[in-house]
Amino acid sequence: MKKILIVDDQSLNQTILEAYINQYCEQHDKTMHIKTANNGVEALVLCQDEKFDLIFMDILMPHMNGIEATKHISQIQPDAIIVIVSTQGDEENQIQALRNGAKDYFIKPIQPDVFKRRLDLYLNIMSNSHGSVSTKQSINPFTNAIFCYKTTYLLENEEDLAQLWESMLVTIKDSVRTNFLSDLIRFIYQLSSAMLSKKVQPQIIMEENDAFYFFSILNTKILPAQKITQLIEKSLENAVYKFESNLLSFQVAKELRTPKPEVIREVKSETTVTQKPKEQVVYKKEIEILQKFNFMESEDLTSLELKLNELATQFMWMGSNELNVDDVDQIVNAFERTSSILMLYSQTQTLGMAIRDLTTIIQQDEKVFIEMAPQMSALCKSFNNDLIIWLKSVFYDGAPSVNYMDASIISNIQMVQSFLSPPEDVNLDDGDGFEFF
Fold first, then answer.
1. CA angle at residue 298 from 295 to 301, to 5 degrees?
2. Is residue 134's pLDDT more than 50?
3. How far is 134 from 147, CA to CA, in rounded Å?
4. pLDDT, tens only, 399-423
5. 36: helix, coil or strand?
6. Residue 301 CA to chain centroid, in angstroms?
7. pTM, to two decimals
8. 62: closest CA among 114, 10, 111?
9. 122 near 79, Cβ under 8 Å?
10. Which of 69, 162, 304, 318 is the most exposed place for a label (fewest CB within 10 A)?
11. Which of 323, 310, 316, 309 is nearest to 378 (CA)?
């Protein structure tokens, strides 16, 4: 039975949310345990005593506001889904809460139908998150020194692949070799798709220790080993992997490695004329310079963050439920706002135009978008997640350049476009895609 905590200093708001949850339970024949707290301090005390699966958190409360409460609770209960409930025009506080561990947000007054659809989404995410099991023997061939658990994903269809994306994005922190990790998960997704097409069920196991994540894919012998190896070398630069008869494993560092030193060859002449000049190798360490950019107006940046988080929620819904016209309209509106903000600035116009072009294609045939949603959900999540990572790096953590993730983001956008308007007579075995037949 799922445990839900409602945190709000207004008893009427508590009653409304509790009523919506009870209505949902009656409609779906479910039982949930609901508790309430009047402020952040009470919520924190409750969370220290018992575990909650889902927490609805108001922002403006006495004693401890929702942002502080979210920050502390997400450290105590990192698996809990914390959803912010705030008023219209409170965008800055919504952003702060999302940065401090909240996964989603609602705007008051809450519409019951919207609330129940989101509640269904949250419960799907919880039920699709595979619990950990104790193990003394690792699956990966790199090391047995792992934490005392492993997470296993059994994939049977496209919907399972979408759920794999959701779980991976929640489990893996964005501070861990972000770009390579995104490429790796995309590779795993595509490899699993190829295995499913061969009527083989992929099994993916994720393990970790203090220094590394380990991703292992079982049942790979159905696919040509040479082809898989070629694709790894081409798609995953500097990947550390081991490939056995029926197992492919990757090792991913949890921290950025120091770039390899660049070898600069200098020729120095000796004093003796009869002696040929000797070649001396000088090592010069390249240090990647990261910088934070501030060219975007604060209001635009805040609006952009909110729209990307809104899209993240929409794409989670898209992966586990059937879309309708209203859902597509919300996605289109979020795309249009995102595109318009990015196109205001010369540094981000390329991304803005790519998203604008995708929006146009979706608007041309919403029916096709709805029909293809299950197949596109993981790709949509991928490029939206890349956008969130890009924004966090460029404006807050530091990035080598404004455009350092453009290629990855635009590539994913183009893949979504190919689903909506596939080219005719395409040779699948062109050396760039996954072709195993």
1. 80
2. no
3. 9
4. 888 888 887 788 778 777 777 765 4
5. strand
6. 20
7. 0.52
8. 10
9. no
10. 304
11. 316
